[in-house]
């Protein structure tokens, strides 16, 4: 297995908090340790650097506690960046901040016509875009994704509110392989996944419940929550090298390694 060097965008959780509840993971009455969240995030960033990836950072904005989840900031493929439109007003102001970063970095910009929560719901898998819908990103946005990026878009219907974004229920391991939780998808979407990826890795509910599928793969190394031990064992059996990281504090807002990480495909280096 060959690893692909990646260019990644992250946002330090300087203002991380759980002040509202927009997914089942969030409980504003539960204590949150912002300093621990920062330390865990820094370990994730260092893990990427140790693997040889380039990590760029967007400046966090006060009052936007979920801005740390950079995957929701856009979709960036072949030098084109699709900005986002959030479903929930609590996150709306993240969209222009990320859009400005992409524009300054030299990406060709496109604005969404419908609710579209970025790479949280849009994953490039070989020659296809897998696009989630059901809780956040609108199905109507999928046609625009196909027009902008020129990849066939395959709709994935999510059915479990705990797995509200596609990247909480499925991870792309390489151009031919994915891992996913079958129960998170409608029967029709499960059938499509079986047809597209007959050799996929099936995660258990126990691993999904620690956001084990919210992972980042470079084709050889898979960075995933340390608590997802069964999934890690299955991946090692397939020849992948797994690296467990503890993001338990950020999980209180429903985020894991992938939520914190946006893949930047082409485009000039940011200033």
UniProtKB/TrEMBL annotation:
One of its GO terms (biological process) is arginine metabolic process. GO terms for molecular function: amino acid binding; dimethylargininase activity. The active site is at 165 (proton donor), 259 (nucleophile). Keywords: Hydrolase. It holds the Pfam family DDAH_eukar. Coiled coil: none annotated. PANTHER family: DIMETHYLARGININASE, DIMETHYLARGININE DIMETHYLAMINOHYDROLASE. Belongs to the DDAH family. This is N-Dimethylarginine dimethylaminohydrolase. It comes from Micromonospora chokoriensis.
